[in-house]
From TrEMBL:
Annotated signal peptide: 1-20
Protein name: CLUMA_CG003709, isoform A
Presence of the UniProt keyword Signal in the record: yes
Keywords of this entry: Signal
Length: 74
């Protein structure tokens, strides 16, 4: 009887260990996906900001040539 209880305890602990391992793997996978998504979002925002600064500089230079006035983008 005692050996059977020990065997059940070993099986239960192995099953729990496998479950915990799978659960932690899922949590880490989700965290990694969230991190990648936030990095991509940040990069896109930085690229959009850089693009708007470049466009602003380009149009500002064209405006100065045409009107002789100062910066419009500041």
């Amino acid at each position: 009887m005692r050996a059977f209880q020990i065997l059940l305890l070993i099986i239960a602990s192995e099953s729990f260990s496998a479950f915990a391992n799978d659960y932690l793997t899922l949590l880490l996978d989700e965290a990694l996906n969230n991190l990648i998504a936030s990095l991509i979002k940040r990069d896109i925002e930085n690229l959009q900001l850089h693009k708007s600064k470049l466009l602003c500089t380009h149009f500002d230079q064209a405006h100065r040539k045409e009107s002789g006035k100062g910066d419009r983008c500041k």
